[in-house]
């Protein structure tokens, strides 16, 4: 039987499509370089020339960028001016904190369920490290800077969402990332100063980590929702008592980076 020849541009298109799929599924993350050419050739089953043509296509589309001596990375998409303006507007509203908690209740419950079903061994290792770092910072004496704890808290929840391997869910969370991190800071500033509440939240983090690691989808979803409801109830109690949220959701770009130790 005569073997059908595939045109070079078709091979490049297929290579680009498969790498895009890897990015969408979270196999390749924004904050890490793409695997080496040798590894990509082996995993995709293509020649080095075909791989380079596929990478060239992705660079032309703006999907990846290549840095001399460092390799290729998934491009960071610049937030549109309109979205940044909305972030600034929302960040000045006290109600935004509670609106975000309602959204997190919807998204993170399902993310935890999916993570418990789909997490890879690497996802579980990353989640373990995130939880260990958060637990250590939360129990440190003297207490660590709340902004640092908030960054670790955010990284822990983000690791669960990434382990869901749902690219649409991750895209929605990416769009809200700055505001969500601001809401985490607000919660840490207000709730971690209450010892009993802090203990409850710490235990929920540990239980959520364990549920995902033990691949218990129903339990993971239940604990994730319970965690957000606890935060909502405690913040509502503070507001009803006349105490303003001291740290409103922030749009400080400088705090959106993940702790280097967890990358």
Automatic annotation (TrEMBL):
Keyword Metal-binding applies: no
UniProt keyword list: DNA-binding, Transcription, Transcription regulation
PROSITE patterns xref list: HTH_GNTR
InterPro entries per the UniProt record, alphabetical: GntR_C (IPR011711), TF_FadR/GntR_C (IPR008920), Tscrpt_reg_HTH_GntR (IPR000524), WH-like_DNA-bd_sf (IPR036388), WH_DNA-bd_sf (IPR036390)
A Gene Ontology molecular function term of the record: DNA binding
Gene3D superfamilies: GntR ligand-binding domain-like, Winged helix-like DNA-binding domain superfamily/Winged helix DNA-binding domain
Keyword DNA-binding: yes
Residues covered by the HTH gntR-type domain: 9-77
Superkingdom, taxonomy of origin: Bacteria
Name of the protein described by the UniProt record: HTH gntR-type domain-containing protein
High-level lineage: Bacteria, Pseudomonadati, Pseudomonadota, Gammaproteobacteria, Oceanospirillales
């Amino acid at each position: 039987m005569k073997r059908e020849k595939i045109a070079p541009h078709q091979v490049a298109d297929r290579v680009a499509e498969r790498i895009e799929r890897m990015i969408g599924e979270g196999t390749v993350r924004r904050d890490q370089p793409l695997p080496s050419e040798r590894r990509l050739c082996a995993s995709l089953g293509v020649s080095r020339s075909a791989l380079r043509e596929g990478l060239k296509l992705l660079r032309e589309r703006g999907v990846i960028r290549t840095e001399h001596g460092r390799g290729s990375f998934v491009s960071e998409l610049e937030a549109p001016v309109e979205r940044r303006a909305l972030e600034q507007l929302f960040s000045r509203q006290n109600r935004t904190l509670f609106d975000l908690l309602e959204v997190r209740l919807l998204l993170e419950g399902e993310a935890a369920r999916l993570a418990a079903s789909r997490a890879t061994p690497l996802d579980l290792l990353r989640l373990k490290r995130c939880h260990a770092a958060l637990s250590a910072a939360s129990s440190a004496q003297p207490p660590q800077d709340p902004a640092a704890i908030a960054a670790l808290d955010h990284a822990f929840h983000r690791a669960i969402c990434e382990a869901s391997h749902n690219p649409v869910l991750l895209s929605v969370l990416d769009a809200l990332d700055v505001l969500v991190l601001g809401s985490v800071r607000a919660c840490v500033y207000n709730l971690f100063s209450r010892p009993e509440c802090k203990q409850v939240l710490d235990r929920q983090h540990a239980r959520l980590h364990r549920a995902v690691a033990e691949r218990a989808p129903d339990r993971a979803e239940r604990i994730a929702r319970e965690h957000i409801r606890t935060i909502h109830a405690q913040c509502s109690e503070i507001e009803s008592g006349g105490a303003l949220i001291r740290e409103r959701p922030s749009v400080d770009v400088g705090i959106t980076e993940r702790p280097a130790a967890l990358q």
